[in-house]
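Dear support,

I submitted the protein below through the web form. The confirmation email said the job was done, but the results page showed an empty box. After a refresh the structure appeared. I'm attaching both so you can tell me whether what I see now is the final result or a partial one.
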Amino acid sequence: MRSGLVRDYYKYARYRQMSLFKMQEVPWSLWDVYKCPVENYVFFSKDWGCVNMYISKETEEQTEKRLLKVISKADLKIFNGAYTFEEFPISEFRSKTRDTALVYIRDKEVWSQLIPVEDTTTTQDLFKVISFHFPANLDNSGFVGWLATHLKRRIGTGVFVICGQNSSRGGIFDYWGCPYSLGDSFIKEIELLVPSSRGQ
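What the results page shows now:
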């Protein structure tokens, strides 16, 4: 399961050799997550329950048709300007997090937050960022690999993807980023696949 600490309504459950269905719900707070060892937590949505994971066998043509339908119905948001990742030690979480961050994510050594940047002449790695929310009960399995491959073939870019869960908006949602220098080509290609982004 792909998961990151995304700024949304979250709770977490401690995982200590229990099955997915036996996890105990724990009251959510950023301070609780700060104290919780990274290898011992996973995330659930505000409404207690498990994330839907679709399993299907299909041909390449069937997958293409299904995922074109998925992206055509997705709620696309294009974020203005550039974003970058700012990292800081685990111990500095409470003092370094920013309200403007889209995402907080960590490993065993650092927290990393995705924040807007005004100065695009900086030497930091800069990204153009979009997000997708998907309709409920629509099989979007394979979406990340499919779209990432499409973008690589069409404009040559790699991407990063960070996923979260919002049960009130269909479940899993994605943040996508590509190098800021390819931002215009990235957005143009996405808009070709999402009719609603073109005012249709």
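Response: this is the final, complete result; the empty box was a page-load delay. The longest strand covers residues 171-179.
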